[in-house]
Amino acid sequence: ALTPLAVLLLVSLQTKVQPNWPALAWIPAAVVVAAWLATAGPRWARLVAGWGGGLALCAAVAAAAVPALRERFPALPPSVPERKLAGWDELAEAVDRLVALRPERTVTLTAGYDVAAELAWHNRHLPRPLCANFGRRMNQYDLWERLDASRTGWDAMFACELERDDRLDGDLLSRLPAGLRDDFAEVGAAQLVRVVHGSTVWRTFLIVRLSGFDGVLDSARPATSW
Asked: How far is 202 from 46, CA to CA, in rounded Å?
């Protein structure tokens, strides 16, 4: 538990540390705390941990199992993580419908690993999505399969999430990564997938069908530039 915390503390002095990175420390730390409560922890600590954990579990189950309860909650601001969990079913269904038009020669292409991972999970019957590097920080997808000459002539179903403050005016195709359209013979119409909760639009996804890949994804950065 202490080793990853110490390492991340040093890293945080140099650059940004994501909140989920210390999970390597919290899991063993929870075991240590539980062992302390069971053996040497004072009675008040055991009562607080037991009642607190039990109430939190009941609240989480109730909020997830009874949708009517969630409607009584105040509107969630854009920063609440629950918004990041919404809309993946809708996006996966929209992508699946378009891929079905030419399933044997269509690959799903994204720019973000979160979109790629969610589509890989929700559309498990399709080949694993490819995540190209259009200037983002590198991740595990840069070590895996990428769109190359082996798929010359194929179509790509590009999907991405738009920014919350995007007014969606003008040409929607301008939201594509720079130069991506030049790597394909034809660019289809842009489609929007809006995730609506009540009267509020939580998220907006963009889907574009790109046809006739020329064999070289010039718009993407080399995957070896660490």
From this structure: 40
Tens of pLDDT, residue by residue over 104-130, are 899 999 998 999 999 999 999 988 899
Q: Is the pTM of this model over 0.70?
A: yes
Beta strands per DSSP E along 10-135:
106-110, 130-131
Q: Are 111 and 141 in contact (CB under 8 A)?
A: no
pLDDT digits (tens, 9 = 90+) for 154-174: 999 999 998 877 788 788 898
The set of long-range contacts for 54-60, using a CB threshold of 8 Å and a minimum separation of 24, is none
Q: 3-class SS at 20?
A: coil
Task: Report the DSSP beta bridge partners of residue 193.
Answer: 205
Please tell me the distance from the alpha carbon of residue 54 to that of residue 59, in angstroms, as a whole number.
9
Residue with the two structure tokens 């075991």? 31
Tens-digit pLDDT profile for residues 11-31: 999 888 888 889 989 989 989
Residue type, 63: A
> E strands of 87-199, at which residues?
106-110, 130-131, 155-161, 184-197
